[in-house]
Each structure stands twice: as C-alpha cells, then as structure tokens.
Amino acid sequence: MAAEATKWWHNILQGLAIICLGGFVFWYFWDFENSGQESLRIWFVFAALYNAGGKWLTSSVFVVAGMAVCVYGLIKAIRGPSAHTAGGEATVSRHERAHPPEDQQAAPRPIDEYIEGAIDDLVAVLGIKEPVAIERFVKGVRPGQIEKCIEDIGGQLGLPVKANLVVVSDEYCRDESAQFETTSLAGTDHRGRATEGITAQVSVPGHLPSYGSPRLVGFPITVKVSASCYKYAETFVAVMAHELSHVLLRSLAHPKSGDEIYADLTAMLLGFAGVIEAGRIVKRVTVEGNVRILHTTTYGYLDNAGFAFAYRRLNTITHNFKKLRHKVLSLASELKSQTQDVEETLGLFNEFLYFLDTHLDQEVDRQDSAGIVAFHRPDYTQPVEAMARASACLAAEATEKAQQTGYFTREAEAILKSYAEQLHGRRAALAKEYASLQSDCQVLRRNVAVLDRQKLEAQVKVRKRGRLTR
C-alpha cells in the first residue's frame, strides 16, 4: 500500500528526467552546428525532427513529454490516495458487516438461509412487484412535497395512509413514549457518530387498522424526518420505504413486523429494490492536508453480500415467473392458431361434402365411397367442432389471465402453471383430432375435380374465421 501511495513522485522524477534529456538533445545539436561537421549519424527519427525544425523542435518534443508526465504526477499528488490506500479511512454503518473474501462467499451463510426463508415467507403474503422508477419518488424529496412523497411510497407498498410530517433536528433522539415507533435508521461511522444524519421515524397509534381494511385509507401516521433529509434523495426514499414496511407488516399482524431484515426485504419485494440499491450506500469525501479520505455509510440492515443475495433471489423468482407468463401466452397463441386451422379444414370438409352431394355426376372412387357415406352422419364432426370451440375459449381465457397478471404472487404462479398444463394437454388432444379430420378431408378432396377443388379452397380461405360451420 505504501508503494502505491508514493507513485506520484515517481512520475515527477520521470518527467524531470525526460526534460533533462531534452536539454541534452538541444546541447548535442548546438554542439554539432558549431563544430564544423558536415554530417552526423543519428537515429532516423531524430534526423527527421532535426531536418524539419532544427534543434528547437527536436528538444521540444522531449520537454513537452516530460512536462506532461510531471503534470500527471502532480494531479495524482493533489488527488491523494484513495480510501483504500495508506492514510485513507473507510467507515461503515453499525448495520454493515465486513464483506467476506471471495473464497468464503461460495459457502452458504446462515444469514443467507434466513434471508431466503424470509423472502419465501413474504412472497406468499405480498408477492413481488415490478421495480419502480427511481425518479418517480426522488423528484418529490424537496421542501413542500415530502408529505406527498411519503404517501406515494406508502401507496406503492399498498399502505394508503395519511402522513403528518414533523421535521426534527439532525441531533434528534427517539421518542420512547410513542405506542408504536419504528427504529431509527441513521448511519454511523466506526466511532458511533452520526455521519449523514438522515433519520426517519414513523409513529402510529396502537389501533392500526388491518391491511386492506377501508379504515386504513387515509389513516394518519406521524413521520419524523431530519432537516437534512433532502441531501440524499435516493437514501431518504430507501429509508422511508423501510420504515413504512414496518407499518405494513404490523397491519398484517405479521409476527416479524419488528424484524429489520424483514422490513428491508418487504421494501425490496414491493418495488423498491432498485431505489434501495441506489441509496443504501452514501459516500462522502473529506480532505485532511493533501489526503482525500473517503467515508462510506451504509443504510439498512442487510450487508453487501446479503443485499446481493436477496437481489439475485428476487430476480430469479421474477425471471422464472416472466418465463412462465410468456410460455402461457405462447401456448395460447399456438392453440388459437391451431383452432383456426381446424376451422379452415372443417370448412373445406363441409364444402367438399356439399359439392359431392350436389354434383351426382361426379365420379367417386369405390374405395372412398364407404367413408363418404359415414361422413354424412349428423354427429360425425361434432367431437372435433366441440373441442375446437372449447380450445378457442381456453386460449382466449389464458391469454386474458396472463395479460392481466401484473406482478408475481404465488396464487398467480399457480394459476399460470395450471393454464400451461391445460394448454399443453389441449394442444396434443386437438392435434390428434385435427390429424383425423385432415385425413377425412383428403378423402373428399381427391374425389373433387381439380378446378372445382381450387375454387372451393379459395372460397374457404377468404371466408371470415371465428365461426365453425357444419
């Protein structure tokens, strides 16, 4: 680390050496010009530079290059070492754990198992919403709009409460007299001192209505925020989402309503994962002498590895759900297309049969006569017609359901899986009936004259689809 910190003066020494070399080159050519020599054997690059601009151009190239290297070294010296070099200092909040080495991250951690279980528990109750746009809430973190911003955050969480804002000083201490109050979520450095001072506390009466109850709409809650909450908008939104998640879990009478990790995960599940990712870590730089020191404050109760694990887990669940949704839509589209093919073939079957019935002079192959007689049974095509109608309805129903499914829930997942199985089975059954219908249609087709056959096929293709006929 010490060697890294001293590299800037290496650059300055190198630059001075190059400048000195430029001075030597100038003296060398000056001496040549005053020595009376007519020629000199030198490297062709030097010769080209000397022929183009004399000793001044040749030496200037080295001087300019040396000055550039010196300036680079000075810039490095002014900027100073990073937080990870000697003299630097990186601070973390009281809620952040040290990031484990790479060789230890592969092994499952007990906290990851707890996070995974918590996610499964919360998903069963709340589902997973699509991530919200950061700008949607950040633009409201300004004087005069904080209450509306907090209520919008609550609305995203499914918590339609009324926020009564109280702005407190950055040195505010918790009010222990409140019947229910979420914990403070202000960052601290390694000495336990508040660094960024972003504090958010939510107080509600003990008779909080149940989640989903009409009484919860417009229910007043007191929100205390520090005066410096505008400084880091993303962090404020992340902190408020965490605090309101405690209220949400309490309205559900969830046994883990006071669990900080559950509150972090609840906010992530309900669309704030991206906002939390953007605002959970705040970095600021202080300067002591010529050394710039980077201070890092982490908000929330998940360490870096835990947050990354939860983020991946949520992404995996939503990715698989989107794949399932796409599969249902694809199967429904294929089944719809299949029913249209059945409808068109039924139209041809009926047209060919009617043509043979009205053109008695048409010669019919003896091998096909028995089959054609059977085709006249009133209920002959009824099974495939009924299956085609039911398949069209199933395809439309599955498509509507998949399109209306806005975000992941276990119930929605189970419904889409059921539709996927039904669609897959129906496609196989309809394909079997369709193959039999095509074979029967082919029997009729080969007994119709070529020109008549082409005319009938053209009529069926331009006919409107969507109605099965006999």
* Count of discrete structural domains: 3
**Sheet bearing the most strands, described?**
4 strands, mixed
Mean pLDDT: 80
Using only CA atoms, what is the Rg? 38 Å
Assembly state of the chains shown: single chain
Give the helix/strand layout.
Blueprint: H1 2-5, H2 7-33, H3 44-79, H4 102-105, H5 110-126, H6 134-138, H7 146-156, E1 162-168, E2 180-181, E3 200-204, E4 220-226, H8 233-251, H9 260-279, E5 281-288, E6 291-298, H10 304-358, H11 366-375, H12 382-404, H13 410-445, H14 450-462
Parallel strand pairs: 1-4
Antiparallel strand pairs: 2-3, 3-4, 5-6
Helix pairs in contact: 2-3, 5-9, 5-10, 7-8, 8-9, 9-10, 10-12, 10-13, 10-14, 12-13
